[in-house]
Amino acid sequence: MEPGERRAQILEAAAELFGTKGYHSTSISDIIAKAGIARGTFYLYFENKRAIFEELLDQLMKGIVARIRRVVLGASQPSAKEQMLANIHAVVELLSQRRSLLAILLEGAVGLDVGFNEKLASFYEQAIAMVERSLRLGKTMHLVRDLDTRVAALMAVGALKEILHDALRRGEEAPDARMLAEQALDILSRGLLVEGAQVS
Amino acid sequence: MEPGERRAQILEAAAELFGTKGYHSTSISDIIAKAGIARGTFYLYFENKRAIFEELLDQLMKGIVARIRRVVLGASQPSAKEQMLANIHAVVELLSQRRSLLAILLEGAVGLDVGFNEKLASFYEQAIAMVERSLRLGKTMHLVRDLDTRVAALMAVGALKEILHDALRRGEEAPDARMLAEQALDILSRGLLVEGAQVS
Amino acid sequence: MEPGERRAQILEAAAELFGTKGYHSTSISDIIAKAGIARGTFYLYFENKRAIFEELLDQLMKGIVARIRRVVLGASQPSAKEQMLANIHAVVELLSQRRSLLAILLEGAVGLDVGFNEKLASFYEQAIAMVERSLRLGKTMHLVRDLDTRVAALMAVGALKEILHDALRRGEEAPDARMLAEQALDILSRGLLVEGAQVS
Amino acid sequence: MEPGERRAQILEAAAELFGTKGYHSTSISDIIAKAGIARGTFYLYFENKRAIFEELLDQLMKGIVARIRRVVLGASQPSAKEQMLANIHAVVELLSQRRSLLAILLEGAVGLDVGFNEKLASFYEQAIAMVERSLRLGKTMHLVRDLDTRVAALMAVGALKEILHDALRRGEEAPDARMLAEQALDILSRGLLVEGAQVS
DNA sequence: TATGAATGAGTCTTCATTCAT
DNA sequence: TATGAATGAAGACTCATTCAT
To answer: Integer distance in angstroms from CA B15 to C1' F18?
Structure first.
């Protein structure tokens, strides 16, 4: 077996186990059993348990980042809505292929050593910052209301995480990804209330 | 020392440690060192490590549930907005007092045995269901738009979680709780976009 | 409660537990729960766990020794057989009253620290020595055959222990004590074989 | 070191310790120290302390059973006495090689969890049953007297146990195995008394 | 005398990691 | 590269014993 292939095989096994049982409950024994390799072989490809988890996390985060395109407005571009939908959809699709890793990301299948939590936090911080930049841009273009963009970005990311999490929990029963994305975008855009309704 | 007091002292130490280091990285040795008691004493008050964590989790969940009042509409009532703000504020306040427990709830300072994750999940499910009921009610009253209440509830809870999480991470630098609550409610109500704006 | 009475109450509880569950599986907690006293109270009456077990063992051994009468031959005496039967019977009776202690003696409900085994061993050694003396006497009187009295004594004691052990295991279903004693004595006296039979 | 060899080495160490100090007083630390291995290595070969003890017990019991041949009468056979002697001798020899295990068997170096005592009891029950069958056969052949075979079997086994136990205690000073076996068989056969002697 | 909260040494067991083959 | 036996630090939990009240 080619070395790259073997590495992938181990990563694959680990991803599934970490996603299912969490980091701590997954032992090296579990991983090597699932990968069908010997104990020592594992350490030929990864420095330690922490390293393989970290690599998986990185892989996922990079995958997400790579799939997101900045929204660009212009006559020759798809509409902003289309672009945003495309972004959401791309992420959802990636995660649906790597279901086990999603759990790590969302449930923080962690509780691990401080370092990991920081890494996760910084990833979300990036996502939030990206959304916030878009909102600020929207504001200058008078598309986005005059609101606290930081808070708004947090809420947007949080809302999407929760939807993804729910879809993960539901598995096959989850609603169609595209429809979900459209609904979410609509609610984020226009809010929950009937236009002109007064709740104050 | 009074027995109830000793229990509280141990719970206190454990909460802080679990919140900071997570469940797995917190050992009984850590807890008793922080609480300043002997090893055996711990087991006088708690059956095992799992039990004290569970008690902490329950305590927090019950605290939150106890602080939330159902929104009631009527001439003699505060406005719906006031009531919702009061709810959000009450929860935020509780959590700011029990900062360490908040981490458990939000970061799922967990990755623990399956049981705990289920417990957490069921708690959130309750919260989501509660919000969804409110949204459905609002719909019949023509306050809430015609939208998928499940998705909307998920988003509302997710958005609030993320705001809380951010406030936790920021510590003292976090914005004022009341102001946050108002902004969040406004964004949820009216959405991100300028009224009448077209992004499609 | 009178101090002697309280002591007896604790001994009683301990005897039953040691006999049933063995020395190691019986905890101080078990004993005080059964005796209905507080933890500290136990140590008011006994120095430690070892001490109460030792006392129980001593009590039993002394009881047995006290009940055995040396066989004396003479015109004005009951027959030797009667005297031996009386001895066996006395022991059986004592043990049937203190069933739980019997288990300690026979099963060596022990496996404990070396000291106890030595104590048990020395008790049996005494019993064997006593029997051996009787056999030697019998030999000089031409009642007992010309055999190795040490081996014979060992066998007699071993045979009786096994019968008692069996009676203990059987509980209520065990045969009548007197009948058992008679049969045992008969077999010891005349052996298993038909007189004159040749197995060689 | 070959895997089987390592296992044997651990069993060896454990047997000696269990035999000397008893089950409870023997810790895993004792065993690994004596075997000269690391803590984890022990658990590579045995599931837990109980498992290694059980294996030792089984090994011994099976060894004994395997060495015993049913007594068969017939012209072409060695005499019954020879066969019985051979049985006794075979057992004694096995036990003299595995001195430490003998202690477990005889002193019930136990006092352990109920399960073990039951195992021991059932082993002895088998032995007794085997002897009883032989006695019944002897009765039909008019070799054995008209006596309660159950009681007689108990006595025979008890007598032999005690002799073995004594030999164990004495160590090197114990009489020669063959001579012991002959004496025991003689006493069992013909009893203690001079033929025709009246003790009644 | 009586109590029972507190103690801490000691036990079993797990598991990430190493290293000789 | 691949193996898997060996390692030992670290963890959870027990329980006989003490001592202030």
So the answer is: 31
**What's the pLDDT at D114?**
53
Ramachandran angles phi, psi of C93, nearest 5°: -65, -45
d(CA A97, CA C121): 73
What is chain C's length?
A: 200
Distance CA A10, CA A44 (A): 11
Alpha-carbon gap, residue B28 to A27, rounded angstroms:
21
Give, in order, the Cα–Cα distances in Å from B130 to each of A128, A174, B127, D107, D147: 27, 20, 5, 67, 84
Contacts 24+ apart (CB under 8 A), C91-94: C91/C64, C91/C67, C92/C164, C92/C167, C92/C177, C92/C180, C92/C181, C93/C177, C94/C63, C94/C64, C94/C67
Neighbours of C26 (CB within 10 A): 23
Protein-strand E interface by C-beta, 7 A: A 27-29, 39-40, 42-43, 48-50; B 1, 3, 6, 37-41, 43-45; C 1, 3, 6, 37-41, 43-44; D 26-29, 39-40, 42-43, 48-50
- Find the largest Cα–Cα distance for chain B: 67
Q: Which residue has the tokens 């079997």?
A: D153
Domains in chain D and their CATH numbers? 1-46 (1.10.10.60), 50-190 (1.10.357.10)
B178 interfaces chain A, CB cutoff of 8 Å? no
Q: Is the C-beta of residue B48 closer than 7 Å to nucleic acid chain F?
A: yes
| Residue ranges of E strands in D28-176 | none
Size of chain B in residues: 200
Question: pLDDT tens, B94-140?
Answer: 887 887 787 777 766 555 455 676 777 788 898 899 889 988 988 88
**Partners of C193 in beta bridges:** D144
- CA–CA dist C172, C170 (Å, integer): 6
Q: Does residue D111 carry a pLDDT above 60?
A: no
Per-residue pLDDT of chain A (200 residues; tens, 9 = 90+): 677 899 999 999 999 998 888 888 899 999 999 999 999 999 999 999 999 999 998 898 899 889 988 878 788 988 888 888 898 888 888 887 787 777 777 766 555 455 676 777 788 888 899 889 888 988 888 888 899 999 999 999 999 989 988 887 787 787 888 888 889 999 998 877 776 555 44
For D2 and E20, how far is CA from C1' in angstroms? 14
Disruptive mutation site among A72, A100, A154 for chain B (greatest number of B CBs within 10 Å):
A154
* Res. D16: pLDDT tops 70: yes
Instruction: Judge contact between A137 and A192, C-beta under 8 A.
Output: no
CB contact, 8 Å: D180 with chain C? yes
Does the beta carbon of A17 lie under 8 angstroms from any beta carbon of chain B? no
Amino acid at D42: F
Number of other residues whose CB lies within 10 A of the CB of residue D152: 27
Q: Could you tell me which residues are beta bridge partners of residue B15?
A: none
For residue D63 the two structure tokens come to: 């060894």
SS (H, E, C) chain A: CCHHHHHHHHHHHHHHHHHHHCCCCCCHHHHHHHHCCCHHHHHHHCCCHHHHHHHHHHHHHHHHHHHCCCCCCCCCCCCHHHHHHHHHHHHHHHHHHCHHHHHHHHCCCCCCCHHHHHHHHHHHHHHHHHHHHHHHHHHHCCCECCCCHHHHHHHHHHHHHHHHHHHHHHHHHCCCHHHHHHHHHHHHHHCCECCCCCCC
Token duo for residue A90:
């791309």
Strand, coil or helix: D144: strand
